[in-house]
Amino acid sequence: MLKIACQYMKYYKSQTFAIFASIFLTAVLLSGISTLMYSSRQKDLENSRTMYGDWHYRLTADVNLDAGSDGSDFEDIYKELRSKVQRKEKGAGYQLEQCGRAQVKGMLTVPYKICFLYADESCRQMTHCQLTEGREPVKDNEIAADNYTLANLGFSGGIGDTLSLGGETYILTGIAKSRWASGIDEMNLFVGEEFGKYNAAERNILYLKFDENEKLYVQLEAFRESYHIPDDVVEANEDLTMYLSGEKARQHYRHHKICADR
To answer: What is the band of 137 on the pLDDT scale with cuts at 50, 70, 90?
Structure first.
């Protein structure tokens, strides 16, 4: 049979060449399409990372509530996670690459809904809120903000100038990077960790970034089991995780704004 096939190929050389050439060109075309689709997906992924932040999930709860059913609170979990990230220690079924913390220290509803937000260095990096000018606020009457927020508040001054809000006067110490996905209902004024130290913070947020080479929702489930985290405090950065195997059968993990439900 093989001998007959070889004889046929020799007799019909041009037709055989055309068949092999078409097969080769089809393979090249399919490879090119696959590469183009992969490149397009990677571009969409990086655009989403830029617009919506480089974090996968966040845990949000009132600061006076236990985060886990074992009695551990956010402060305990945060310290342990920061230590694991620094040591690059693998958890039971998950690998945490970055962890950031934010606290809603207070809130105004006039003239807009504005959060007084403390965010550590990792949180600012993951949410793209790093300072581009000036320094971080430290004292109780110091704030930093992005140009979008300052413009909406009618502020036309610069670093070192004062801004009056809610009957209080604040000194602007820094300008933060403006986020792509800013909205009138999610303006933040960044404050120091000691801001409002005589009043309890209203809300704690932990931002989590897992190993993107593994399924994110599997790592999240393992993380939740390790720290006894309930469903209702978990929120997903869906605009990013949709590209990274972050889907979940249950729809408890949604993307919300920090102040959306306040």
So the answer is: very high
Q: What is the spatial distance between Cα 170 and Cα 149, in angstroms, rounded to a whole number?
A: 14
Closest CA to 196 of 144, 261, 260, 139: 139
Dist CA 145 CA 159 (whole Å): 10
Contact between 69 and 82 under an 8 Å Cβ cutoff? The reply is no
Cβ partners under 8 Å of residue 6, min gap 6: none
Report residue 96 CA to chain centroid gap. Answer: 13
CA distance linking residue 25 with residue 107, whole number of Å: 62
- For the chain, the domains span 2-51, 54-241
Residue-wise pLDDT for 69-80, tens only, equals 444 577 788 888
Tokens 């393992």, residue located: 222
Q: C-alpha distances in angstroms, 22 versus 7, 19, 27, 31, 36?
A: 21, 5, 9, 14, 21
